[in-house]
Amino acid sequence: MHPLFNKHLDLSKQYFERLLKPGDIVIDATCGNGHDSLFLASLILNKDRGFLYTCDIQEEALTSAKNNFHGKIAPQLMQRIQFLHICHSQFPEEIKPQSVKLIVYNLGYLPGGDKNLTTKTDTTLKSITQALELITPGGAISITCYPGHQEGAIEEHAILELASHLNKNVWNCCFHRFVNRPKSPSLLLLQKAKN
After folding, report:
1. What is the pLDDT of residues 149-170, one digit of tens each?
2. Which of 80, 159, 160, 191 lies in the 20 to 30 Å Cα band around 143?
3. How far apart (Å, rounded) are the C-alpha atoms in residues 104 and 56?
4. Which residue from 7, 3, 1, 63 is spatially nearest to 31, judged by alpha carbons?
C-alpha cells in the first residue's frame, strides 16, 4: 500500500473532499455503477441544500447506480438526486451557467458491462465544452481517462489537446498519470479561477 494514493480514483476523491461542501450542485456526467455518485452525494447533500445530477446513456448503469444508493442515502436526500438517462453531451437546460461546483467524468465502458459500448471522443469533447460554461468560479471538472483501449487513447489525446488551449488566466489544468504503468488510467483536473 502506498501512503498517498493507490489509484487515480483515490486521488480524485481527495480533490473532491477538498473542493465540495454541503449545498453544492454537482453533476456525475457518466455515473456507471454509481460509486462516484454515492461518494459525491455524501459530500454535498443535506435535508434542504445541495443537488446531484447523475447521468448515464445506459439504462443498465442507472439501474445499477440506483441500487447502489439503496439503504445508503436517507429517503429525504434521495429527493435531491436526479437520475437522468441521457448522453453526457446533453446537460439539462435547467442547469444555469456558472452554477455547478463540480462535474465528474469517468470515461470508458461500464464496469461489468459491454466493453464495446464506450464513451466517444466527439460527444465527450462536446460535453466538456458545455461543462466549461456551467462551472462556477472556483469549481472544477474532473476527467478520468482510460487509454488502455483504442477509443480511450484517442479520447484522452483529444481531451488533453482541448485542455492545453484553455485560457491560463481562467483555468488551471493538472494531469496525473502513473508514468511507470503503461496505458494506466489518468486523471485530468480543470479548475476555474475565482473572480
Report:
1. 889 999 999 999 999 999 999 9
2. 80
3. 12
4. 63
